[in-house]
Amino acid sequence: MAKAKIQFPRGFLWGTATAAHQVEGNNTNNNWHAWEEAGKTADKSGLACDWWGGRWREDFDRAAETGQNAHRLSVEWSRIQPARDRWDENALDHYREMLRGLRERNMTALVTLHHFTNPLWVEETGAWENDETPELFAEFVRRTVDALKEYANLWVTINEPNVYAYSGYVEGTFPPGKKDLNIAFKVMVNLVRGHALAYKAIHEVQREARVGMAHNYHAIAPKKPKSPLDAWVAKAQSSVFNDLFPNAAQDGKVKFLWKNVNLPEAAGTQDFIGLNYYTRAYAAFNVKMAGELFGKLSFLEDADLSATGFISNDPAGFGEALKWANSFGKQIIITENGVEDAPDEMRPRYLAQHIQELWRAVNFGIPIKGYFHWSLVDNFEWERGWTQRFGLWELDVKTQKRRKRKSAAFYEEICKTNSLSSEMVKKYCPEVIEKIFPD
Ligand code: FCB
Fold first, then answer.
1. Ligand 1 center to residue 389 CA distance, Å?
2. Is the CB of 340 under 6 A from ligand 1?
3. Distances from the Cα of 157 to the Cαs of 30, 284, 376, in angstroms?
4. Which atom of ligand 1 sits closest to the CA of residue 216?
């Protein structure tokens, strides 16, 4: 077979993404720590990847040495503002040092300001159910961005607000573990308000800032393509889950089922669309599932499933997600994409096939600035704890030893050459060579 190669535009950002609570360790002053202590997670975050203890240095070295030119990390609100009237300058210095560390390694920083966790003092007053929280968040954002602006100008205000609201207030797997659509809606409205206020605050302290949210796009298709009921349910679920936040940041209207609120201050508050894509599910109409909008989600029988059955390798869903993201008319950054795969058997082909989809979109003229793989090193996976391993590097949680997975070497070749070639695919995942580079 002839050699083939797909090439990305010059200056494309290649990196990995992490989040404070998942990597820092000893994060004891937030709602997730309390959730862990209450026994609601598979296990505890403990030292995590010990980034607060300084191991970010060796992990940033790994990233830089393997050709990554960018990194997405998050700052922990509960460290920077441990109490309502207390600001910890040492914590801000710590983040400044980390961001300086990225700069010294010639890596562009993308900073997330809220990634699922709230300080305990915020949680105790109702978190995002409380109408005061958006203002408090904006105050935290203003101060943090002001302290860090020397080292970053790409900001994500809130990570996956849809997942935060859905998991915490519909499904009940995230703190505070409620199942109440009315409260969920209140939380969503306040998250939109918090984002809008943060957007304004960031631009006030840094004129050149580029600000967005990281949206989790869950592709949902009808289980039986010819069934009108399945088609209806798939569309309804998809629009409820995926569209609310980006639409609100576009036109200032928050629409959720039969509810509707106008927030004109939220209109036009995204400079880029952050896209987190993992998988696609299939919806079947089920009259008994009113709470889930009458649809049961599952994967197809012949799906290519991840180690714990959490993710189906569906690159076409990524293509769909990229078109969806492009419909907002903004620049796009892939803020997360990856798979949990401790044995690292599926990850190489998942990576290759998603990078191919990414290239198709770039080639189609969709303005994509960069790609952040989730994640650099195995980290604490929320309620699923350490049972799922998303890292390019494997982590031994007890000894803190890292081991480079095959996928890290593969990603290294992609980052260093700014391309994906048939030789790489043959070397790392020959099983998909015909799919990616057909003869
Ligand atoms: C996303 C989260 C991220 C990580 C990945 C696997 O929903 O944003 O923190 O848990 O899933």
1. 11
2. no
3. 18, 34, 21
4. 7
Entry pTM: 0.98
213 lines ligand 1 (CB under 6 A): no
Residue 356 near ligand 1, beta carbon < 6 Å: no
Domains annotated on the chain, with CATH: 5-220+268-280+302-436 (3.20.20.80)
CA distance 335 to 215: 8
**Ligand 1 atom closest to residue 163's alpha carbon, by position in its atom list:** 7
User: Which ligand 1 atom lies nearest to the CA of residue 388?
Assistant: 6
Question: Under 8 Å CB-to-CB from 384, ≥6 apart: which residues?
Answer: 41, 42, 308, 310
DSSP codes joined into one string, 103-152: HHTT-EEEEEEESS--BHHHHHTTGGGSTTHHHHHHHHHHHHHHHHTTT-
pLDDT digits (tens, 9 = 90+) for 34-77: 999 999 999 999 999 999 999 999 999 999 999 999 999 999 99
pLDDT tens digits for range 254-307: 999 889 999 999 999 999 999 999 999 999 999 888 777 788 999 999 999 999
Q: Which two tokens stand for residue 68?
A: 């990554």
Q: Closest Cα partner for 407 from 338, 315, 344? A: 344
Ligand 1 within 6 A of CB of 164? no
Q: Beta partners for 73?
A: 111
- Does 374 sit in the ligand 1 pocket, CB within 6 Å? yes
Report residue 255 CA to chain centroid gap: 23
Total residue count of the chain as it appears in this document: 439
Give the whole-angstrom CA distance, residue 62 versus residue 60: 5
Residue 423 Cα to ligand 1 middle (Å): 31
Ligand 1 pocket member 160 (CB < 6 A): yes
Please give the number of the atom of ligand 1 that sits closest to the Cα of 159. Answer: 8
